[in-house]
Amino acid sequence: MKSRVLGLSAITFLVFGLVVSSSAQAPQPQPGQPGVRGGGRGGARPANARKRVLAWADTRNGQAQHDFTSHALAVIERLGYESGAYDTFIRTDSNIVTMQAKKTTGEPASGGPSLANVDAIFFLGHRDVPIDETQKADLLAFVRDQGKGFVAAHTALTAFEPWTEFGELMGGSYDGHPYGNGPGTVVNEAADFPATRQFPPTFAFSDEFYQPKGFSPEKSRVLLRLDLSKMPANDGVHIKGGIWPLAWAKTYGKGRVFYSSLGHEAGTWDNRDVAQMYFEAIKWALGLTEGDASPRPVRTNQ
Fold first, then answer.
1. DSSP for the chain?
2. In this predicted model, which residue has the larger pLDDT, 60 or 126?
3. Which candidate, 121, 202, 228, 256, has a CA 20 to 30 Å from the CA of 38?
4. Residue 88, CB half-sphere, CA atoms under 13 Å: how many?
5. Residues whose CB falls within 8 Å of the CB of residue 245, separated by 6 or more in sequence, listed in order
6. CB contact set of 246 (below 8 Å; sequence gap of 6+)
7. How crowded is the C-beta side of 252, counted as CA atoms within 13 Å?
C-alpha cells in the first residue's frame, strides 16, 4: 500500500472528503462553530446533542512513554471536532473514570467528563493504569450494561494485565512484540466493515505489531491480521492457528468494542487509512454507523 500521509490540510480533507455521512447521523454545530473543543461542560445535555468521547491516555506506569500518544489524541480530537461527529474530552489522569468525577483529593468535581456523561472511550492506557475496584466495576458496566463504546489502540493491549475482566472486554491481552518495529504484510479480512473497508485486500505496513494472548476468533471478528507466512521464524511467536489479529471488533454485553495494534509511531497517525480506521471505529462504537462484528472463520495461508 502506498504511503498516504496527512498534514493539517490533509486531515481536513479527510474529514470533509471521507466522512460526509456523519452529517446525516450526528447533530451539527452552528455556522462558525465546528465543534466544542474538549466537549464543553460535563453536565446534562439536550437530547439532540452530539456524542461525547473520552480520550483517556493514562501512561504514567508505562514501561516506555510512547511518543505517538499526544499526536494520536490530537488527531482523534480534530477528526471529531472538524466533522461534527463527536466532541472530545482529552484526559491523561484516571480520576474521571467513574460515574462521579472526582478531584485528585477524592472530592466530587463540579464539572467535566465522567462515565455518566460520555458515550464512548478512546483508550490509550499503558501497563498498570491506577484505578480502584469501584472504578473497575463502573468501567465494565459502562460498556457491558449501558451499551457504550470502547475503542482502543496499540498500548491499550498492555493495560490492566492482571485484570481478567478487562481482557474479556478487550478480547485479548499483551504477549510481546517479537518482531520489534518493522515491516510486515497485512491481510484485510473485513472489506465490508466501516473501519477497514478503505484498506486493500493485502498491503505492506511497518509497525510494532503487538501479539495478543487470550484472543479467540470465536468471540471477536478479525478485521486485519498479520500474514505470518511472510514473516521469518521467531521463537517469540506464540500465536496458535496462524491467526495474528492486528484489528478486531466485538460486542461486550450491550456495548461495542474495537481494538487495533497499529499506531506505534507518531507518523502512523498521519497515514490517511489509519486515521480513517480509528475515526470510523469511533463512529461505529458510538452507534452512528453499523458494521457486523459477528465472529467468523478466518482462513490463513500457513
1. ----B--HHHHHHHHHHH-TTHHHHSPPPPTT----GGGS-SS---TTPPEEEEEE---TT-SS--THHHHHHHHHHHHHHHHTSEEEEEESSSTTSSSS-B-TTSSBPSSS--TTS-SEEEE---SS----HHHHHHHHHHHHTT--EEEEEGGGGGTTTT-HHHHHHHT-EE---TT-EEEEEEEES-TTSTTTTTS-SEEEEEEE-PPEES--TTTSEEEEEE-GGGS---TT---STT-EEEEEEEEETTEEEEEE----SGGGGGBHHHHHHHHHHHHHHTTSS-------------
2. 126
3. 256
4. 26
5. 172, 212, 215, 217, 220, 222, 223, 224, 225
6. 186, 209, 224, 225, 226, 260, 261, 262
7. 26
Domain definitions of the chain by residue range: 8-43+50-173+248-285
Query: Can you give the pLDDT at residue 124?
Result: 93
Average pLDDT over residues 24-28: 42
pLDDT band per the 50, 70, 90 thresholds, residue 250? very high
- HSE of 190, CA atoms in CB hemisphere, 13 A: 24
What nine digits make up the cell of 147?
A: 451499551
**pLDDT of 9 strictly over 60:** no
CATH no. of 8-43+50-173+248-285: 3.40.50
Asked if 210 and 174 count as a contact pair (C-beta separation under 8 A), the reply is yes
* Measured distance CA(245)–CA(258) in Å, rounded: 12
Contact yes or no for 83/17 (Cβ under 8 A)? no
Tens-place pLDDT, residues 102-123: 787 878 888 889 999 999 999 9
